Amino acid sequence: MSDFPRFPAGFVFGAATASYQIEGAAAEDGRGPSIWDTYSHTPGRTANGDTGDVACDHYHRYPEDVALLRELGVDSYRFSIAWPRIVPDGSGTVNAKGLDFYDRLVDELLAAGIEPAATLYHWDLPQALEDRGGWRVRETAERFAEYTAVAAERLGDRVPRWITLNEPWCSAFLGYSVGRHAPGAREGRGALAAAHHLLVGHGLAVRELRAAGVREVGITLNLDRNLPASGSDADRAAVLRADTQHNLVWTEPLLAGRYPASEEETWGELITGQDFRRDGDLELIGQPLDFLGINYYRPIVVADAPYREADPARRVATDNRYAEVRLEGVRHTAMNWPVVPETFTDLLVDLKERYGDALPPVHITENGSAEADEVGADGAVHDAERVAYLRDHLTALRAAMDAGVDVRGYYVWSLLDNFEWALGYDKRFGIVRVDYATQRRTPKDSYRWYRAMIAAQRG
Ligand code: IFM
Q: Would you say 18 and 79 are in contact if contact means Cβ atoms under 8 Å apart?
């Protein structure tokens, strides 16, 4: 017990999920197709051809999942609303049955004494909007604002904490540049236009949420701790490009009212020739926030792009701006992500140093690890590595708070094993195991550890 990190009174402990990853019921009650339905049903796009058609069947089993949350003792549950359940064609007709589902979920949570936290966009764009250009075009941001108004009008009286976008970096760059996420495009300029329109959509959604009078409004970014592969000038310059593309493209407009100073050296003519920015956009994007959501998992070791040719053996991922290389000498999770908890502290402390009082209070809206879980002879999952990961990252978070970063909450990713996007169901992030054949839920040791840690704060 004594090695539990300690947090101040009122600190929010939660668990997180997302609609397409857990709900299933993909064609039920009027839900329209999303880009992830199209992408996952395209041969070769996801591991084993996995789709979110059934996922954890949460759409039907949500009372059981809320019971698990209550037993866990969390203060808050972060879920996402599927835009194509609410506005199946992306614009126009609102689907009452879709709204009814979230209404039931929210009431179930409140009855269990759990505060709902809703994300409006966790990547399931209505396919009809992608067919009209997706996030490459400004119209999608306008449709996002309309959907936000509908959701906030129905749920805003009972959902106090709202997140406009989850990890827009993934939507823009994995979706429109690297092509590893839906819609699977491989464009340079399209990704930069998407990044901007996502931010415009965020700004328009903030206005709608303010008009609806909700208590707290924020956005969730997956900020990265980028480390140079060597001390060379070339690798340091690559880190700046990675910082620009992962972090500054979001934090500079959101928190400092400007575009990144390093954008030309990062994107060259792709950004200098752009015409998607309009007067007034920075004011719209930079409206004050009640909190910044941060998702953090691992550091990234970055090398200059020619490194890709020089040493392909160490390369784990590439982008056209830099190469990512493997960090030796540390444990890696089932995602092949290095585990270096102190980089979590460093990321938060650096963010505070850079933005000072312009940094709003922070909620860690995701943190967790995928591990090669096994069901033991006793029927249990003894996931000691996940327990260590959570303990060490919570300790690192506490260190950032001690260093002056105002952090108000922490949501473990994830409550349930779920559909890990292009990697399908093989990667298990849950603190509760899901047997996909039977939909049986089995709390893992990490669930029990997290429950005891939360209880210890209150004890
Ligand atoms: O599963 C994802 C989630 O949807 C967004 N953040 C990262 C998680 C793990 O990859």
A: yes
Question: In the chain, what percentage of residues exceed pLDDT 70?
Answer: 96
Q: Which of 393, 429, 431, 434 to mutate to test the pocket of ligand 1 (most atoms within 8 A of CB)?
A: 429
Read off φ and ψ for residue 98, nearest 5 degrees.
Answer: -65, -45
Q: Domains, the chain, ranges and CATH?
A: 12-458 (3.20.20.80)
Ligand 1, residue 420: give the atom nearest the CA.
1
Answer whether 413 contacts ligand 1 (Cβ < 6 A). Answer: yes
Better pLDDT: 178 or 162: 162
Give nearest CA residue, ligand 1 atom 1.
420
Condensed to tens digits (0 to 9), the pLDDT of residues 230-275 reads 999 999 999 999 999 999 999 999 999 999 999 999 988 889 878 9
What confidence tens digit (pLDDT) does each residue in 124-161 have?
A: 999 999 999 999 999 999 999 999 999 999 999 999 99
Give the active site residues. 167, 366
Phi/psi class of residue 113: alpha, beta or left (left: φ > 0; alpha: ψ in -120 to 50)?
left
Q: Decide if 201 contacts 141 (C-beta within 8 A).
A: yes
Residue 91 clears pLDDT 70, i.e. is over it: yes
Q: Is the pLDDT of residue 323 over 90?
A: no
Question: Which residues 6+ apart lie within 8 Å of 296 measured at CB?
Answer: 222, 223, 225, 344, 347, 364, 366, 367, 393
